[in-house]
Amino acid sequence: MHKIEYSIVRILYGIFSSISFRAGRSIAYILYLITAHIIHYRKKTILKNLKLVYGDNLPMPQKALLNNIYKNFIYLWMEFLQTSKLSADNINEHFNIQNFELIDEALSGNKGMIILSGHFGNFEWLGQLVGLKGYKLSGIAKRQSNPYVNALIEKNRTRFGVGVIYTKNSVKVSLEKLAKNEIIAIVTDQDARDRGIFVDFMGIPSSTAVGPAVLYLRSGAPILFVISIRKAYGKFDVFFEKVCDGPAMQTTDELIRGITQRHTLILEKWVKKYPEQWFWMHRRWKTRPYEETDIL
Q1: pLDDT tens digit string along 170-216?
Q2: Closest to 245 (Cα-Cα) out of 113, 125, 117
Q3: Contact by Cβ (8 Å): 201, 63
Q4: Angle of CA points 209, 210, 212, to nearest 5°
Q5: Is 47 exposed, middle or buried (0-12, 13-18, 19+ CB in 10 A)?
Q6: Contact (CB, 8 A) for 241 and 266
Q7: What is the domain partition of the chain in residue ranges?
Q8: Distance CA 295, CA 284 (A)
Q9: What is the pTM for the complete model shown?
Q10: Which of 94, 113, 116, 111 is nearest to 103 (CA)?
Q11: How far apart are the first and last CA of the chain?
């Protein structure tokens, strides 16, 4: 089964890595139509999540919202297959960047830097953007269950000097890289199960990873949040903003909770503004506080 799955991904990769972005968009649009209107990928989970957050007051008609969620999802992964088409020469054709100077400001303290984001817009390309700008960045990622697909994804992610740190021993490795004044990138919005703490996200207690807060408190490396807002296939507005900037300090529960809530609310701000660009197909609220029953 792993080899069959890999063969499908490899064929798509071979096609998309060899064609233009314009051609890629045309094929991606067809795949979006198939996903949205025939496959209905994780539709029940999407609708449950939307109901949980919005009740009957969706930010746009349900059909339009579902279609736009699927479109962003498919476009993201087809763009990812075209990562090799990015270069230092064409980067400004794909990204309109705001506040990028915050990176140099953060690195000026020689403590490294932590960049956070969510499953939003095209989060995969954000690491490539920073790498193409000449910075040493490593992203923390979960290893895929299919080793063949994992190798292909890693090859694509590590273009332009970007590194991958797998979740096992990620804190130790990340602290070593921060000490070298490098950048650690983390996507923070998946359910953290019993390893996380509960903070509010979209008005719901949400199990959230504490890794970013722990790294900040142990290293003193500033935290920035970055988001990509899709404007079209392969084109994004990118915004950087500060989360935390201060010296290393004792890792108390109160500080960890405060930092985790702070960056979670930044993502919430963008999800509320562009709900169609977030990954509603994740079971973000699967883990519940002990005093609650399951809500999904």
Answers
A1: 999 999 999 999 999 999 999 999 999 999 999 999 999 999 999 99
A2: 113
A3: no
A4: 100
A5: middle
A6: yes
A7: 2-277
A8: 11
A9: 0.94
A10: 113
A11: 29
